[in-house]
Amino acid sequence: MEINWDSQSLLVLGMSGLVFILVGAIMYFFPPKKINHLYGYRTPKSMASQERWDFSQKYSSVLLIISGVIIVPLGVIISLLPISQKADILLSVPILLLTVILFFIKTERELKKRFGKN
Question: Please, what is the angle between helix 85-115 and helix 50-80, to 10°?
Answer without folding.
Answer: 160
